[in-house]
Amino acid sequence: MAETYDFLFKFLVIGSAGTGKSCLLHQFIENKFKQDSNHTIGVEFGSRVVNVGGKTVKLQIWDTAGQERFRSVTRSYYRGAAGALLVYDITSRETYNSLAAWLTDARTLASPNIVVILCGNKKDLDPEREVTFLEASRFAQENELMFLETSALTGENVEEAFLKCARTILNKIDSGELDPERMGSGIQYGDASLRQLRQPRSAQAVAPQPCGC
Amino acid sequence: MAPFLSSDAGDMIEMQGFGPSLPAWHLESLCSQGSSCLFCSTRSSPYATPSRCSCVPDRLPLRLLCESMKRQIVARAFYGWLAYCRHLSTVRTHLSALVRHHIIPPARPPGASGGLTKDVWSKYQKDEKNYKELELLRQVYYGGVEHEIRKDVWPFLLGHYKFGMSKKEMEQADSAVAARYKRVLAEWKACEAVVRQREREAQPAPFTKFSSGSSIDSHVQRLVHRDSTISNDVFISVDDLEPPEPPGTEDCRPEPEQELGAGPPGTAVAGRQQSVEFDSPDSGLPSSRNYSVTSGIQSSIDEGQSMGFEEEDGGGEEGSSGLVPAAGAFSEPRDASPHKASRASELEAGAELVAVCTAAYTIELLDTMALNLHRIDKDVQRCDRNYWYFTPPNLERLRDIMCSYVWEHLDVGYVQGMCDLLAPLLVILDNDQLAYSCFSHLMKRMSQNFPNGGAMDTHFANMRSLIQILDSELFELMHQNGDYTHFYFCYRWFLLDFKRELLYEDVFAVWEVIWAARHISSEHFVLFIALALVEAYREIIRDNNMDFTDIIKFFNERAEHHDAQEILQIARELVHKVQMLIENK
To answer: A single Gene Ontology molecular function, please (chain B) (predicted)?
Structure first.
């Protein structure tokens, strides 16, 4: 039960409805395609410990609902996310067109420094493609995103997407660009002792005051 | 304790006030407070005491000091108690709205915990006038409905039938709903046909899908196909008004053309759906020949719109008002195009177009419907596909009902989660009209939980108060962990009436109790089920010192593993607890 890891990163999976967010997460966690996936309501959840550049990192991944109507709800989960997979469906231009709005949400609500990787999912459906690789990579470049085309069905590039994002965050920590200590950085140190450090503080608060007056 | 406190209260308040006319012993105690010397003998070093403390302990009568301390302690306790009582009474006033004050017990008359059985139900059906509605509901509340008769009982619980209706009245209710369903189905299917037609023209060949955004053609295509809000920017090409192809040659799946005649006069006109055509990128015409008439059409339509498809219950007015009646709103072409003067010939063609368009829908409506159909299709396909009932034909029925409901509520539109709520109804009732009617009834309550409905925040606030009153230990823990007083971990619970938290068989059992509870114990029974879920795992939550994230994760993982009957039992007990609390105030 007890996991040891050096860091914990909070990740988001965001993007329009039906782009395969839950399937990407499921593929990453379980290494298989989720056949009977239902649309996500509220938020779903997954975590996995990965090894990146000699460090063990626990990814705590929040999988969100896609329909815009739920955006106000989804937003409450954004806070303190270190990384995000921004997902669109390569066979649906509509999902590609709304990327900018999702990105704005992520940068304003999670953190301006959030590390985002753009994922053009459903790569296996190439004959039905509506968005070219070139067009999307241009968008990624303009918005300073990493970019991969993925397939939750075959598993192609799924692991890479998560790992790439994690690696970038680690690099930014190493270079000092990201400060894990800052509130809402979405990064926590993994050792259990640190988590317990938080407890005595609240214990002190309820301890009786020394003076009765 | 209370009487003692209140008799002493005068003194306490005086002490807290520290007015200028203090008696001598008060002054002395004030002195001791001012220098905080009560602890100086124990806290600071003995050498420091005389110099820093003005009141040397041995000069003060020890008894007086103790007295003062005692009073202060009692005062603090009293004020704490008073605040707590005030808080409690506020919460009680608040909570009293959550439950029915009259307690209906399971054991009087006995047997309610056995549930509503087939026997009882057949007795009721033979003698519906003399059976007490409340008695039946009480049995449902305490024991559920026998599976075999759910199909018959649910329409009563949901309000499609009323208890005490005669057979004839029930038939009347059925035929009214059947007629309405048939009409609505015809209405939106006619509209769907136009939407599909429009889509076909917007995407004539697969390769035109690649739009770089640079050419006007693709720009137009994008506007037509994707944009659901800016209807005034949609271009219409007059030159595309060719006679429609016969349906047989179309490559798409056959449209339900035969349905068209079934609708009321307003929809029958949709048989001329093909008249609305849009510029397509491969029309081969220079884009200069496109001109915008949409705004003109729009405004004419708005004027000619007095006749809508009002429902008898007034539920669908917003949604259906977009439909254009076949009135001659366009008998005179309006000066809609800014380029009128220079394009006389086109205006002529425009007049022709307008004449044909009388029978059509507003662009806005078409866009909205297209968007909703798209969303519904996406979700219906993946709705409960691991449950045996949802074979492709049954999914198609689910879609028809869903679209019909959405057509009548286009102002809200389809929201994810609606499918989840409809699916169990269809499974039990296995009848399209009935499921449609019952779903409409169910949504009267449930629609408020959806975004912008406002009920969700109220649920969260109520949960907070309930936990505070019924489980203060857990409340303290939650309070310490800060974040999850927002109770977002209950979001899905409330949105879907626990549908995703439970196995299908348990969903049936829980839902009918929720519906019956409304008349028996609480209109907000869902709150108590939510609370029961929290309580069922309270030790785990407490012992692991779970925070918001842990709790969301925990309950996501526990989904479909709950013991529904146990949860219901706890929930009923919690209602009873609150009822007792209120009674004993």
So the answer is: GTPase activator activity
